[in-house]
Amino acid sequence: xxxxxxLFITSLIYCFATENQACCQNAPEGRxxxxxxxxxxxxxxxxxxxxxxxxxxxSVVGNTHLVDTLRKLGVDIRVIFGPEHGFRGTTPDxxxxxxxxxxxxxxxxxxxxxxxxxxxxxxxxxxxxxxFDIQDVGTRFYTYISSMQEYLETALExxxxxxxxxxxxxNGFYVDGPVLDKKFKSFVGMQPIPINYGxxxxxxxxxxxxxxxxxxxxxxxxxxxxxxxxxxDTPFHFMVIKNQNYTHKSKYVLPVKPSxxxxxxxxxxxxxxxxxxxxTALSEGRGTDMQFQVIGHPxxxxxxxxxxxxxxxxxxxxxxxxxxxxxxxxxxxPEEVLNKTGNQIQLKWLIEAYKLFPNKDSxxxxxxxxxxxxxxxxxxxxxxEGKSEDEIRKSWExxxxxxxxxxxxxxxxxxxx
Length: 417
Fold this sequence. Notes:
Structural class: alpha/beta
Shape: globular
Number of helices: 12
Number of strands: 12
Largest sheet: 7 strands, mixed
Strand content: 5-15%
Radius of gyration: 22 Å
C-alpha cells in the first residue's frame, strides 16, 4: 500500500519560508539564514518519522552538524547518504567511496559517489521521509546538483516525501557560460544549463520539476502547485525550506569550505572560470594551498608566477606533482577576485595559456574531459582557431538568453536584475 501522501492528486512544493515566518532562534536581524537553521519551521514535519538524510560536512546548523542537531532533538535518522568527498567531506576529488558506518553516530552511510549514484529501493524501504541538505557553489560541473537530481528522482519514483533545506549560492549573483549540449551529458553536466546558472539548490530542483527534466517515471508522478499554508499533517512529495534574508544580489561567504580543493571564497569565485583547466595540461593548483587560484605548467615561460604542487589532503595525485609550474596567481582579497572575474566566466586566462603553450597538440587532454566541462565541443575549437573572448561570448548569447527566461520562472528569491 502506498503512503498516505501519494493518494493526493498533486505533489506539493511548499516554498513557505516567507519573511513573516519565524527563523532559527537567536539569528541576528538581517543575517542570511540557511533553510537548515530554520528548525522550528520543518521539525514538525519530521518529528516521529524515520528519516534518511543526504548530507555532508557543509550540512551545519551554526557550529553543529545537522545530523547531530536533529538527533539531539529526537529525530530518528535511520540512514545517511554521502556525495563526492564523503559524508565528512575529507575524501579527495574523484575518489570513489564505499558504504560504511559513521564513527561519531554509528549510522550507516550509503555512498552515492561509488558503485551507485542514487539510493536503491532497499536503502529507503524503512524510511518515512528524506532530507537533502548540502552546500552548493553554483556551477554546472560541481557534482552536488547531479547528486540532488538523482536523489529527487529516487524520492518521487519510490513515493517518498523529500524535504530540501535550501542554502545560499555563493555564485548566485550572475548567469554566464555556454549552455550544455545534451550530447555531452555526464555527471559533471546533466542538464542544458550554463556553467554558472545563478540558482540555489531549491530553485534548481524546482526547475527540474517544472521543466520536466527528470526521469520519465518521476515526471509522470509529479504535478505540482505552490502552497503557502502547510501544516505538519499535510502530505507532500517535495518541499523547499527557503533561506531568509537572501537575494541574488547577496555575496554569501560559506562558513565551511564545500570541498577539499575549494578552501575559501576566492577559490569559489574563480572556480567557474578555472575549472575548465581541469581538461587541459595545466595545473589548477591542486596540491597547493591556492587551489583554483593559481594555474600553470612546467613548459610555460619561466618569467611567469611559479609554484610547485605536491600531494596534500585534498589531492593525493594530480598534475605535475614535484615540478615547478609557471603561470598565473589570480588570488587576492575577495573584492580583488570579484574585480578580476567581473561577474562573468573569464576566458582570457585560457586563451592566453593556449597561446603561450609550446605544444598545442597536448594542451587539451585526450580524455575529452574539457568538452564535458565546457558542455560542448565548440569552445575547444574556438580556442584552437584563435577566436577572441568577445567572439566566443557572442556565440553563447542565443542559448544563454533562452535559459535566463526559463530560470526566471523558477526563482524563489529576488533576482539580481
